[in-house]
Every structure is written in structure tokens, then in C-alpha cells.
Amino acid sequence: MKLNQIPVRQMKGVSAQKEQELHAFGIHTIADLLDYFPFRYEDYRVRGLAETKSGEKGTVQGTIVGNPILQRYGRAKTRLTCKVAVDGILLTAVWFNRHFLQDQLTPSREIILTGKWEQQRLQLTVSSSEFPDSASARAGTLQPVYSVGGSITQSWIRKIIGLALQQYGAMMEEMLPVSLIDKYKLMPRREAVTRIHQPEDTTEGQAARRRLVYEELFLFQLKLQAYRSLNRKRMDGTAHVVDAESIRVFVRTLPFELTDSQKKVVNEILTDLRQPYCMNRLLQGDVGSGKTVVAAIALFAAVKAGFQGALMVPTEILAEQHLRSLQKLFAAAGLEVGLLTGSMGERKRRDVLAGLQMGLIDVIVGTHAIIQEGVNFRNLSLVVTDEQHRFGVNQRSILRRKGLNPDVLTMTATPIPRTLAITAFGDLDVSTLRERPQGRKPIKTYWVKHGMLDRVLGFIRREVDNGQQAYFICPLIEESEKLDVQNAIDLHIQIQQAFPDMRVGLLHGRLSASEKDETMGAFGRNEIHVLVATTVVEVGVDVPNATLMIVMDAERFGLSQLHQLRGRVGRGAHQSYCVLIADPKSETGRERMKVMTETEDGFEVARRDLELRGPGDFFGTKQSGVPDFKLADMAADFEVLEQAREDAAELTANADFWKEAAYARLREILKQDQLFQGDLLD
Ligand SMILES: Nc1ncnc2c1ncn2[C@@H]1O[C@H](COP(=O)(O)OP(=O)(O)OP(=O)(O)O)[C@@H](O)[C@H]1O
């Protein structure tokens, strides 16, 4: 029996109700329980009074002198005091609401006190006390502090983990190969798990943590690297026969000349498409840098080679927009483009599904719906996805199980510093669009206070009179979508009242797909002058005639989000503006506004963002696609992550890893991961 197969209920003391509550903390098996690590320690080590600083918490040992005095005050409140001799000093120990201790405080008995020491008054306010002769004494130890709640208390979980260590500790298996344990002089697993729960001292706790952090990051990287290595080895991707001439002809039909950056990136992608292994490439380019057309060329190449392609986007608004632009681009070449979204009618959906299965549709555009059950392709060979986090390795394995192993091109407009990207996402190949199409004027960005709304309205008037359009964004914070939608509705009324002669549109997440589509379509045709919207327009929306982006309460947005929003303008030849309305309360908030007014370069914005937030926070956002680690901290443990990546890459590249007994345990772990289901690992 393995520890991860023994339900936690097997432990004495874990009732059915406790078991339920443990489940909420992700604890199902004994292995989970042992891996439920403390996030800090409480220090109960006994020190001399001289070493205990006044005003701070400490633990001391002394002898009770004289009888305790109990005072009652308020309703059912008590204050118990007693003189205790510690290191030759007579101090007053004070307990609040612990009247039941009175009988135990007998003169000349030894006692250990933990609490706040006030030297001036020779007084110690006790938070916990115990007698050295009692069995459950904590004194002398560092006590682990766990994340707890409900009927799971600190002392209960300490006890149950302590018992689990006694009962099952010997069954804990090593996971890391000896070579790595030796290389970094790591604690063996059994010892590390025991010590992280019950360290003798801080050094030991840290050494245990170091080992377990490495293990966690190594296993994370191992998964990514093993996946990549298998992928390369298998050579079961599609080796597209790319017809260079027809691509040249297609590019000539585009309404503009490709930038040098676009040409370079297209070549990188075409080279990948020709290879027999699967492409896994990240295309990063600043907002408005022209990623869509690059994707279109790649899709065109796949179709010309005799396959189908898919473009997966995060929202239905974007799906509709991309459908229209691809239809336009592919019209002359006679490619058939289809749309598949979650909110589509059943009949339409059935037609599309049939079209995909029979190969009548060459390129499908859609949301997540594309890779759901029941969607079958005739021969899908390329998936382009619009935001890196939406198409992770897991989605990939869904397709694999359908017998599909497409090349994947992931586009992101959130430029991630290269080292971070590579480290966090395994070994993606990265292509970067550095320049924007020619003729674009830099967007002018202003930061104004709420009091200046009148002038902002004047700005709208000027732009609309010039034939341009404006976005007016109000925040949408997930916790109270209802309130935020109300904000948008109110703002819409306010703007419409200010400009009775203009057409003011409203767009938010609560509208139906067709309502959204209608509004977006009308805005695209300049039938709506001002679009009041929530962040549903954040990514990808492309209306080149819009030249003014106003963001209400801009302090409520993160830097990359603001940059994305700003990127909705400046997409045509006209001068564009971004106005941030904000009264930030914090220094970081002000700093963010400053960064926005100082630079328009997405890479620079990302760099400053990283500086302001640190990599921990950067990766903490949903954007990153990086899982929550139990122990590891992306910021503090970043170097370990780098190291772990190198180790994992080296190991999986070595043929021994896939057959030697020494690595059987690691292969076992991989096999259990759903990512590798259906794959033969050895
Ligand atoms: N080489 C080019 N020359 C001129 N215009 C171009 C060029 N490439 C793309 N465009 C136009 O630039 C605009 C922005 O392109 P696109 O929508 O592909 O940007 P993007 O990189 O996807 O940006 P975002 O992440 O903001 O959506 C589009 O209107 C597109 O037609």
C-alpha cells in the first residue's frame, strides 16, 4: 500500500466530519496529510529573560512564588496574576480569561510561560503557559503553524500530523534521484518531511524547506521537460509540405506590406511547420503589432498542405471579429472559415461539426468549444491560440487523446521577459514581433483626476466631431460583477445625456452573445460613436477608427491590463489618445499611472510591472498559467526554479531516464499525471 492510496480517514482521530473538512484543504490521503506543510513556526524555545526583548514575545521558565490573585471585571472577564521568579527576577505573570488555571498555580511549582515581556513593569502577559512535567509540553520547540479553519484547529492538526509521522513516516519514499540529492546536498525526503513539521531549530527547518522546495519545482519542471522531450522524440507531428509560392501569392493579396518583424516570425513558424515534431511556439508581440496576420499566414500554409487549422480565442467577441477578418483575408484563395462558440444554436452547431468532420471547413475560429467533446476534425494540424494561458499542456493532451497532435502557436500580447517565459513554461520556442506597422503615431497618454471629467467629455466631443470614435472603460472586478455592470449602465446614461446627438453603445459581460456581437459590429462600422464598456474589450479588439481610450478608475487596473486597453487605440493612421482617470491612494498606484504616461512600449511596461510587483506577483496572476506551489515562492525561489529546469531538461534528454530502475519512481509520478495519460513512458 502506498501512502497516497491510504485515505486519511484511516487515522485514529479523523472522524467522518473531520475527513470532510480535511478534504476542503486538499487532504485526502495520508500522503496529502504529510505534505500539508506549515507556513511558519512559533518559537517556544525557552530563553533567559536577558535575551528576551522588552515588548516582544518570548518563552521563559521559572518558579511560582506566592498565591495567584483573581480579579473579575466586565461581564465574565477575568484577570489572573501570579508572581514568578525567573532568572533571579521576580516578575508578574498576567493571564486574561484563564481563571481555570488558578488552582494549578501552586507556590514553588515550575512553570513555562510564553508571552509578551514588558521590562519596565516587570510584567509578562501570558499567551500560553504549561508545566514542564506535563506530557504535551511544547516548550523547547518550534511549533509549526498551519493554515486551518472550521473545527480543524492548530493543536488538532499538529497532533494528527505528529501521529501520522509516527505511524507512517517510515513508509515515505524518496522521489529525487540520488545524483540530485548529492549534487545539492539535500535532506532525504523522509527526514525533510519530518523536520519541516517538527524542526529542532530554525536551521533545520530551513534545510527541510530547501529540500522540499527543490523537489516541488523539480517535479513541475520534470513534467514540462518530459513532455517536450517525448514530443520531440515521437516525431509524430505533421511535417507540412509548405508551398512557398502560394504563400507568396497570398501575402501579396494582403492590404499592406509585412513588417520585417512579421516576415522573420513567419519564416520561423513555417520552418517549424515543416518539421515532423510538434511545434510549440510562443508568438509574443506588443498590442497592435500585427499578430493576427501572422496567424493567418500560418493557417493558410497548413490548409495549403492539405490540413485543417483552428484559431482559438478567449471571448466570443473576438471569435466573431477574427471570423470576419479571416473570411476577408482568405476569400480570394477560396478557403472556408467556420465559427464555433459555446452560445451557438444547436442546428448551426451541428452543421459546423459535420463540416469539420468532413473537411469542408478549412479553418475554424472559436472559443474553448473547439476542443470540447464531440468536436471531431478530419485532419487538424495547427492550433493557433490567442492567449497563452488558455491552451496549456492539458488542452493539448485532450486533443492527443482524440488522436490529434497539432502544431501549436500561442500568441500573447503580454510580453513576458524571455527568461521568465522560458523558465516558467518549460522550453517553449519564442518568436517576438519587435516593431509595429509603419505609419503609426505614438499614443499620447494623460493621467487626470476625477474632477476633470468635464474636460474629458470635451475631448470626446472633439474626436467624434473629427469622425473618430472613443471607448469609455469602467472597471469590472469579479467579486461584484453585478455592481460593476450597474456602474457601466449608469455611466452609459450619463454619457448619453451629455451628448444627446451621439450614439453611445454599451457593452458588458451580462449581455447575450448576439447583443454583444451586434454592438461590436455597429462600433466597427462607426454607427456607434462612443462605446461604454467593461474590460470585455481588453484583448484583441481591433477597430482602427477608434482614437480615444478613456479608462475610468484606472487605479483599479494592473499595468498590463491598462496597456492592453490602451492598445485598442492607435491601430490606424490617426493620432490616438489614452486618458486615465484616477485618484490613486497608494504609491504603487501613482507609480503605475506614471509608467503609463512615460512609456508606450509593452516590453518596457512589462519590465516596470515586474519591478513594481516582483516575479511572485507577476506569476500570481491568472495570465501566467503557472500553478500555485505549495511551498515554493516564484520570487524568492526563482533561482531554484532555473536550476530545477536545467536539471529536469538534462535528465529527460538522457535515454537512461526512460529505462533505468533508478528513475522508476519519477516515471511513476509522470504516469499518474493526466498529461501523460495514454502515453507510453517507457
Ligand atoms: N504590416 C502591417 N502594416 C500595416 N498594418 C498592419 C500590418 N500588420 C497588421 N496590420 C494592422 O494592424 C492592426 C493590428 O493588428 P492585429 O489585430 O493583428 O494586432 P495584434 O498584434 O493582434 O494586437 P492585439 O494584441 O492588440 O490584438 C490591424 O488592423 C491589422 O490589419
From TrEMBL:
Task: Tell me which UniProt keywords the record has, alphabetically.
Answer: ATP-binding, DNA damage, DNA recombination, DNA repair, DNA-binding, Helicase, Hydrolase, Isomerase, Nucleotide-binding
Output the GO biological process annotations, alphabetical, semicolon-separated: DNA recombination; DNA repair
**Keyword ATP-binding among record annotations:** yes
Question: Keyword Cytoplasm on this protein?
Answer: no
Q: Which SUPFAM superfamilies match?
A: Nucleic acid-binding proteins (SSF50249), P-loop containing nucleoside triphosphate hydrolases (SSF52540)
Q: What is its EC number?
A: 5.6.2.4
Which transformation does this protein catalyse, written as a reaction? ATP + H2O = ADP + phosphate + H(+); Couples ATP hydrolysis with the unwinding of duplex DNA by translocating in the 3'-5' direction
Give the family this protein belongs to, as stated in its UniProt record: Belongs to the helicase family. RecG subfamily.
Q: Which NCBIfam families match?
A: PRK10917.1-3, PRK10917.2-2, recG
- What does this chain do? Plays a critical role in recombination and DNA repair. Helps process Holliday junction intermediates to mature products by catalyzing branch migration. Has replication fork regression activity, unwinds stalled or blocked replication forks to make a HJ that can be resolved. Has a DNA unwinding activity characteristic of a DNA helicase with 3'-5' polarity.
Write down what this protein is called: ATP-dependent DNA helicase RecG
- Species of origin reads Paenibacillus baekrokdamisoli
User: Which taxonomic lineage does the organism of this UniProt entry have?
Assistant: Bacteria, Bacillati, Bacillota, Bacilli, Bacillales
